[in-house]
């Protein structure tokens, strides 16, 4: 399989007064061109730190890379100078976040902010950059884009602001879009619209998408492949079809049972007892053992590694298979 991005044994740690937080602790996966990979896991699993590591947006200190590699089109991003990394961020990999308001500057109009991005990274005149901005606003489904160019961030709804952020991300024609819980802050109908938009843009542009979410339902809608993270590691990965049909890890099964059904008012049918351990106090053995209905002595003592159970379908569990 051709790989545009490949993480190998990535470790991203933070020094804190309470000890070392192993926020990402030996994560590996890859993504092919023109693919959508979902990353799921409860809050605190290491999803955002994984994404920020790829972008090299980990504040150092207190964060640091304790090991591993992030190959982007064959080059290890962890070895690049900041200058080169800025070019990658501006032209090849773009990221959108959960809360679009905090990523927009309140003192500039939305159009101006997109235009600035274009002017920094591309040899466009002011007029060309403005035209391109309006085209991007249209592309992300903003009606009357020439007028909306002059809108202030606070004048727009959350969904519209997320569309503006997506337009900004697309302004560099990235080969990879990282979307970190892009719809979590939005209400349900708007969520669906934004997800549809991302799916359409992915299909139209051929970019790859790394979609981070705590919601397996979102993965089912949008992704071909999925990575399940728990306590800073990958516990299962495979095609969405295989994982829905035959989840191998008890944690994955727990997450699948907690997908809200349509019409259930997003009420959780099932929750996994307990919570994700702190990245500072990771339990020995399998990290999920303290919450796992199947755990026995070995699970509490020996850490399972990812093992392949069917082509392209791996799990890290002593009880799988
Ligand atoms: N700046 C930081 N300092 C210390 N610990 C951090 C920092 N950022 C994240 N962490 C820890 O890393 C772990 C993973 O966080 P994160 O990647 O944000 O999880 P997720 O996105 O899956 O909810 C958490 O336990 C969190 O407390
Ligand atoms: Mg997060």
Automatic annotation (TrEMBL):
Please give one Pfam family short name: ABC_tran
Question: Which cellular component terms (GO) are annotated to the entry?
Answer: plasma membrane
Tell me which Gene Ontology terms the entry assigns under biological process.
peptide transport
Q: Domain ABC transporter: where? A: 5-256
PROSITE patterns to which the protein is assigned, alphabetical? ABC_TRANSPORTER_1, ABC_TRANSPORTER_2
Membrane topology qualifier = Peripheral membrane protein
Q: What would be an example GO MF term here?
A: ATP hydrolysis activity
| Cellular compartment(s) | Cell inner membrane
Q: Report keywords, A-Z.
A: ATP-binding, Cell inner membrane, Cell membrane, Membrane, Nucleotide-binding, Translocase, Transport
Sequence similarity: Belongs to the ABC transporter superfamily.
Instruction: Tell me what this protein is called.
Output: Oligopeptide/dipeptide ABC transporter, ATP-binding protein-like protein
Q: What is the lineage of its organism?
A: Bacteria, Pseudomonadati, Chlorobiota, Chlorobiia, Chlorobiales
């Amino acid at each position: 399989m051709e790989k545009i991005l490949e993480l190998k044994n990535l470790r991203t740690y933070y020094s804190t007064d309470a000890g070392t937080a192993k926020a990402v602790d030996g994560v590996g996966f890859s993504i092919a061109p023109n693919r959508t990979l979902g990353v799921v896991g409860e809050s605190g699993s290491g999803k955002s730190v994984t994404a920020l590591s790829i972008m090299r947006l980990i504040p150092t200190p207190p964060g640091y890379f304790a090991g591993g590699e992030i190959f982007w089109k064959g080059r290890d991003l962890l070895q690049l100078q900041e200058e080169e990394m800025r070019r990658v961020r501006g032209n090849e990999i773009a990221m959108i976040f959960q809360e679009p308001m905090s990523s927009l500057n309140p003192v500039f109009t939305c159009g101006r902010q997109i235009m600035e991005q274009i002017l920094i990274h591309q040899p466009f005149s002011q007029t060309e950059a403005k035209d391109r901005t309006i085209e991007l606003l249209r592309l992300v489904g903003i009606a009357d884009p020439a007028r909306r160019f002059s809108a202030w961030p606070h004048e727009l709804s959350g969904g519209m602001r997320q569309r503006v952020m997506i337009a900004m991300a697309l302004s560099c024609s990235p080969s990879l879009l990282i979307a970190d819980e892009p719809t979590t802050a939005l209400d349900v109908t708007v969520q669906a619209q934004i997800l549809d938009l991302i799916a359409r843009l992915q299909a139209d542009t051929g970019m790859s998408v790394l979609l981070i979410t705590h919601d397996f339902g979102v993965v089912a809608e949008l992704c071909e492949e999925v990575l399940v993270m728990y306590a800073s590691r990958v516990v299962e990965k495979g095609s969405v079809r295989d994982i829905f049909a035959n989840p191998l890890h008890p944690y994955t099964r727990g997450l699948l049972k907690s997908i809200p059904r349509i019409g259930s008012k997003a009420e959780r049918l099932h929750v996994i007892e307990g919570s994700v351990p702190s990245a500072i106090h990771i339990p020995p053995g399998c990290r999920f053992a303290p919450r796992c209905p199947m755990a026995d002595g070995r699970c509490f003592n020996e850490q399972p590694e990812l093992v392949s159970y069917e082509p392209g379908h791996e799990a890290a569990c002593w009880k799988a298979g």
